[in-house]
Design goal:
Helices cover about 85% and strands about 0% of the residues. By secondary structure, it is mostly helical. The chain has one domain.
């Protein structure tokens, strides 16, 4: 935790020396990094949900073929 505090202080000092345009670029980059974290979290959550759905299907005896047949039936309007 102390290392993060030191890194934040260094970052603040470095920002003081930048032009306004560069500060805006830094902010944009920070937002980009945050969006990447958010995307990765969504991927993890999706993978976890898919794994849980497959486990439920397996416990109920639902096969991949059953799922495909249901999808086909819905697409055909049955």
């Amino acid at each position: 935790m102390a290392q993060v505090a030191v890194a934040r202080e260094i970052l603040l000092r470095e920002l003081e020396d930048l032009s306004e345009d560069k500060v805006v670029e830094v902010i944009d980059f920070i937002r980009f990094l945050k969006s990447q974290e958010s995307k990765e979290e969504m991927r993890r959550r999706f993978a976890r949900a898919l794994e849980e759905a497959r486990a439920i299907a397996k416990s109920r005896g639902i096969t991949d073929e059953d799922v495909l047949e249901e999808i086909k039936a819905v697409r055909e309007g049955r």
